[in-house]
Amino acid sequence: MPHITVDYSDVLAETFDRRGFGLALHPLLARTVKGSVAGCKTRFRRIEECVIADGGQEAAMLHVEVALLSGRTPEAKAELSRAVLGLARDHVKPMPGITLHTSVDVCDLARGSYASHTGEGPA
Predict the structure, then answer these.
(1) Which CATH superfamily, name and number, covers 3-109?
(2) Taking the chain (123 residues) in consecutive chunks of 10 residues, what is each chunk's mean pLDDT?
(3) Where are the domains of the chain?
(4) For the whole model, what pTM was predicted?
(5) How far, in Å, CA of 114 to CA of 123, rounded?
(6) DSSP characters for 9-40?
């Protein structure tokens, strides 16, 4: 924990430094939410197709969802959202003629029902 999911438009496949983003994101999260890098998990999902607004412009999207155990203040989550947004933008090379829509959502994992296992063998 935290669990991070990154959805990105297919057109960003060559311009989005996913590994660099993940490696920079984990220490940022650990500092901001007082966690550990070892607990961070990021997965990337390439979106083959998306429609943005009226579909009349060349556009791409990059959306980051950060799921944390509940208990952080709204201010802490807003600070984290802004920091992750800046970091995401730093890891995508500009593409002339393409408008990039970047967003971040920080959401809660319910402490009472969240379970996890790390190690060899079955959970």
Answers:
(1) Macrophage Migration Inhibitory Factor (3.30.429.10)
(2) 94 97 96 89 95 86 95 93 97 95 95 85 66
(3) 3-109
(4) 0.91
(5) 14
(6) EGGGTTTB-HHHHHHHHHHHHHHHHT--GGG-
